[in-house]
Predict the structure.
Amino acid sequence: MRQSKLFSKTRFESPKDEVSKNADLLIRGGFIFKEMAGVYSLLPLGLRVIKKIENIIREEMNSIGGTEMKTSVLQNKEIWEKTNRWDDAVVDNWFKTKLKNGADVGLSFTNEEAYTNILTQYVSSYKDLPIYAYDFKDIFRNETRSKSGILRGREFYWKALYSFSQNETEHNRFYEKAKVAYEGIFKKVGLGDKTYITFASGGTFSKYSHEFQTLTESGEDIIYIDEAKKIAINKEVLNDEVLNELGARRDTLVEKKAIEVGNIFTLGTRFSDALGLKYKDEKGESKQVFMGCYGIGLTRLMGTIVEIFGKEGEMIWPEEVSPFKIHLISLAGNDSEVEKISDKIYKELTDAGIEVLYDDRDMRVGEKFADADLIGIPLRVVSSKKTMEKNCFEVKDRKKGEISYLSTEEIIKKLK
Amino acid sequence: MRQSKLFSKTRFESPKDEVSKNADLLIRGGFIFKEMAGVYSLLPLGLRVIKKIENIIREEMNSIGGTEMKTSVLQNKEIWEKTNRWDDAVVDNWFKTKLKNGADVGLSFTNEEAYTNILTQYVSSYKDLPIYAYDFKDIFRNETRSKSGILRGREFYWKALYSFSQNETEHNRFYEKAKVAYEGIFKKVGLGDKTYITFASGGTFSKYSHEFQTLTESGEDIIYIDEAKKIAINKEVLNDEVLNELGARRDTLVEKKAIEVGNIFTLGTRFSDALGLKYKDEKGESKQVFMGCYGIGLTRLMGTIVEIFGKEGEMIWPEEVSPFKIHLISLAGNDSEVEKISDKIYKELTDAGIEVLYDDRDMRVGEKFADADLIGIPLRVVSSKKTMEKNCFEVKDRKKGEISYLSTEEIIKKLK
């Protein structure tokens, strides 16, 4: 894409109403636009990152047998009353609105009810199970305060998968598979070595749930890590009984701040009981379906990546989620020869299937470089009079901090 | 995909609370699930159709220079007050809700305000224009009655592109391009020969807008067509002055019912005036940006396709939007040889990049065929003892109503 056609522009001053690094850098880079506290629109660059993350998640979910669907945002009060989650005294972050006839409806803050209710129409026999289904969806939570940028939005974009199994044994098998798939996701988006599977509260549903916690000083969660044993425990559940059960000792644990980038949860029969999701087993006996849920906030994940890889005035996107693979910067000025060569490599890279953001704008060198730093595409390729004379291009690998001089063919090879 | 893994099931009885053909067939085929009147979730098959439509639209929008982004659902009251569209007396189908601090927020019913407001931060010079940006998004309209299935939802999925030009001349050039792109979309989704560009009211914005109207008896709109001159006029604007202007005559016009599947609209400077979207022209003079909007409801489009191609108990999806290209039906029963051959062709077709729904279920022949009729994939391939003995497969082309006997290679060739 030619940068002259990209309407979003970078800005060098920080927005005054943001305290988080993620919102600061994402707004300055032209990835997001703040509509109000906790509500952001995705500008073209931001949407590209989200789509990359979405595709990584979709691939992993499909590989463990997930089927994608899309549930409505507007939620039927009756269903939530059956699970006792309609009342604002029970769930304090609902957004609610009204139909013209005065009937109350809610805006999805989660999806257990919708999925369980839909499946009551389709599940009757053990032959129908297991079912693994998921949604990418805008989710609405009426947070009282919202100042951590896209880490905790009033409106955000997530994926949630729900599993429906015959019993706990079948459930546990899938739960372990989902853990592996989640590890795959965080590895691919570049957070693998900083993300820990963490024992956390299972709420009213089960003893433990598992959170995926990414270590960073800007995290709101406190977790305890045993590096040697690769165990992580959320502060909420840290007590002697838990330590004993997990074979961990207080004196080998290190306290860390972290952001919860995903969680997986055993739900048991809480929702299938309330909504009547039953099946007949092989003996013809009626049983409750055993459920689990598996969530990831995509916008939060994008924010976490920025918290980890962002610096003052510079972002470095991990390759797999970068909005483009190459930022090609033409320093043609008035030199039509350089312009021709820049156009040529742009075409050649694009023809080779490589996503290129091509800075074809008539601007000062310093501004172009500062822009590229804020946008943060991991490979910066410069085409200038100097490189033309050397019959190559200057390639900066942001992550390694290395500069090399390569031909078009060598650049293509580097990316394959 | 193996049909045994598809949780949605067909149903042979019609839902009692639906009067429209589209909702009836889509619910019976397992494409959508009714959450409440005017609100439907997309089941896996329905989402596949929507994704096909989405990709067709995206391709056309990108080809005319569109850039994709994603604006928030929650809308800031202040911005809508500036354009005088916040008040329920002016816009009667808002859904509104409240933040914890009591502030009112709205749910997007359209996108002019959001786009115009965002661009005030990015447009300052004529060099920044034109801009063509679009969204795929869930839209919310608080309809009083909602009984035409997914043709008029309280929540629906749409695409809207907004154009931002220096002046009316530049705008008109793009407007004509958008017309062609829209024709391309309706042709690709299979509605080309039934869809007419129709002169319609331009509202307070301009003399005319253009609607894309698909002829069908179930349409809510009345349009008048001059077949020879290829002119169509919405009843709302039909008067002598308009006839005169378009060179049409009342006695050659035929009255038809139609569904509006898309519309394009000149907005002029109504929104840029209200929200202060200005630019400096080449002489340094301040000017208002000239706008247009270009909408398509994807869920409505899916519904229209069903109204056109659906029959009692049978759907025939146009190839480009069909959830799968082939419905492979194995009539193996207990014959492991037939099962082996069915598995083999499933793998071969899938390996060839063809999307196949593979009915591998242990069910009666009649039920499998009735299911396939409701799901409506245009090519049905049967693998049975009989076809095995003939060393081929039975291929039914639903659209042509033809049956032929082909090898795997011939089927693959047919689809390329």
